[in-house]
Automatic annotation (TrEMBL):
It comes from Saccharopolyspora rosea. The chain crosses the membrane at residues 29-49. The lineage of its organism: Bacteria, Bacillati, Actinomycetota, Actinomycetes, Pseudonocardiales. It comes from the Bacteria. This is AlgX/AlgJ SGNH hydrolase-like domain-containing protein. Keywords: Alginate biosynthesis, Membrane, Periplasm, Signal, Transferase, Transmembrane, Transmembrane helix. The keyword RNA-binding does not apply.
Amino acid sequence: MSSRLPPVHEAWLPREHPLHRPRHGRRQLTALVCAVLFFTAPLVTWLFGARPEPVENRPLAPFPSLADGLGFFTGLGPWATDHLPFRGGAVRSVEGISRGVFGEPARTSGGAHSSPIGAGQSDAKPPLDENVFPNVIEGKNGWLYLGHDVSYRCVPKRSLDQVIAGLRRWRHVVEASGRRFQLVIAPDKSTVYPENMPDDYAGKDCSTAARAEFWRRVPAATGAIDMRGELRAVAARNGRPIYHDIDTHWTHEGGVAMTYQLAERLRPGSTAGWQVRPTRQYPHPADIPDLLGQQRTVPIQAYSLAPDGGADNTQFRPSDFHHPLHLESEPKPGMIDAPVRMVGDSFTQFASPYLAAAFTDIAIQHPDDVATDPQAAGQLLAEGRVVVFELSERFVAGGRYPMLDPQVADRVGAVLAAHPVR
């Protein structure tokens, strides 16, 4: 018998031939149909009015660009997953069934809740796969924590030395152009209120050690404003926590505290005549319960801020800063009148009304957009005499901000250098 293979594809052989294989068997056809449905469902349902809802603490994955090459195909999966219709309802259904029938939280991709993985074990060598960490950590007294507080510290994308070098590079390029530079790092809720974390959770040892090292080194090495003590002091004066129990952000009191700190850094004594008073209360969708398939709100207490002690000067303009938010007002005593350009994330959303009250001219851009378009970011920052960064601890400690790449700072710095402040 000849051992040579037939000169045609096996699918073209007669069906009775022992080497015949159909080009698409039943399993292949099933897989192909499922793949087509998975990738086309978002488009088809969109045409009929269905819109995706975010269920994680991040924007929905964008549709990949053909210019990304192979990245176009690898990006299709995250896009289709995020844009699947009724995904939020499915997550809530799974969560409800798991708790109602089995009496325990559901386990979603990446671990949706705190789990015993790593509890009681040595974390001297943290796992290389961050999916072993929970997306949500269920703490004491009903508190919920974002799992990235832990996973990003334990599985950083950049070393702490690289993070410090990136932040120092930013200070250098800004100050070399004649501008003032201020850096605020918004502490994680788990940093300010570790007492409500569970006794055991995945990554406890590695995240605790990384947090201590971060705060020991970063403020001293970069000149960052350390907000931890001030936040606890404000909470003690007000008699309530300065972070929401089921949301990862600080309250408006945290935003006011940051505004005070920045103004005093830029012009000491400028806040002496400020008057801050409570105003309206309103419900705000909490971000962490979304990861559990729950829709819950936290009560928001808003404030007025009168820099001259008179009329309220706040401006409430909701924005995610992916389109820069520009806030202007007439100068008053107690205000900072130098143009300020700011890079800030979701923590600054709780501060922007008070920044508008304290600064005559301020524009805020999201950190992710700085790395996406350094030229445009440089042009925006060049409009200011003061450049302020507010960055979240978890993203800085984990080296997750793309703008920490020194090349990004250099590209923005080139634009600033071309428009120096004298």
